[in-house]
């Protein structure tokens, strides 16, 4: 296990990025206005100008490097994670997983509140030890070395929590892509999971229609209708080719 500096971007790389932003080759306007054209041109130009000349990367780099960050060899890959220890002894460990296209960084405020609730009006005895891994290939964890029989992300999480960090029992939270990882984690290792919390729930890959309740069938019908409406909208709005 190592404690790295998360970010150390060279001045040359930053200068190159800013130069490319300043010299963006903007497309001709689409023959419609605003977001109907895909994006609002004025907002996009403003963002590019800010990233080129207003954004203080060094301040953000320092904030990232101040986080409790570690890298471990897990399942044959370099896995990055943050660790926030519970402010009170015996806090239940919990692993938090971000969604796409975000990163581990969006979960830092939640991790701080869970690990040190007294800082936010809560009680120390309600604190958790919080682990926030980076999904392989996203920012700071190495991409899987092979697409042939890789170690699935939920298994990497269990190896990290159970084998590497030594937590016999832990909880898990995830949203979006992280909800899928968390669901698989709970399904694969129920003996180790105290519970899971999801911000998105997918229907199972297979189920017996005869066991579906009236409420579940109503949900399935609603999802089918929504998908059909989305398909009609996408087809009708596609440009002629």
TrEMBL record:
Keywords: Aromatic hydrocarbons catabolism, Hydrolase. The keyword Hydrolase applies. SUPFAM superfamilies: alpha/beta-Hydrolases. It comes from Frondihabitans sucicola. This is Epoxide hydrolase N-terminal domain-containing protein. PANTHER family: EPOXIDE HYDROLASE (PTHR21661:SF35), EPOXIDE HYDROLASE 1-RELATED (PTHR21661). Belongs to the peptidase S33 family. Pfam families: EHN. Residues 4-106 form the Epoxide hydrolase N-terminal domain. Signal peptide: none annotated. It comes from the Bacteria.
């Amino acid at each position: 296990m190592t404690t790295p500096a998360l970010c150390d971007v060279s001045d040359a790389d930053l200068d190159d990025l800013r130069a490319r932003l300043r010299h963006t080759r903007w497309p001709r306007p689409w023959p419609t206005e605003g977001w109907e054209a895909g994006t609002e041109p004025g907002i996009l130009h403003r963002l590019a100008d800010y990233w080129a000349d207003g954004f203080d990367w060094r301040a953000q780099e320092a904030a990232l490097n101040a986080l409790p960050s570690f890298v471990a060899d897990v399942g044959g890959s370099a896995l990055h994670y943050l660790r926030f220890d519970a402010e009170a002894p015996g806090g239940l460990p919990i692993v938090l997983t971000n969604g796409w296209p975000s990163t581990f960084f969006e979960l830092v405020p939640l991790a701080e509140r869970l690990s040190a609730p007294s800082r936010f009006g809560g009680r120390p005895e309600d604190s958790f030890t919080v682990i926030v891994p980076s999904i392989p290939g996203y920012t700071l964890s190495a991409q899987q070395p092979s697409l042939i029989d890789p170690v699935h992300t939920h298994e990497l999480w269990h190896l990290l929590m159970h084998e590497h960090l030594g937590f016999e029992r832990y909880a898990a939270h995830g949203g979006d892509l992280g909800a899928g990882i968390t669901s698989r984690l709970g399904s694969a290792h129920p003996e180790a999971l105290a519970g899971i919390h999801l911000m998105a729930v997918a229907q199972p890959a297979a189920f017996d229609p005869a066991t579906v309740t009236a409420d579940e069938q109503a949900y399935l019908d609603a999802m089918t209708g929504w998908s059909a409406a989305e398909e009609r909208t996408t087809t009708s709005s596609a440009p002629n080719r």
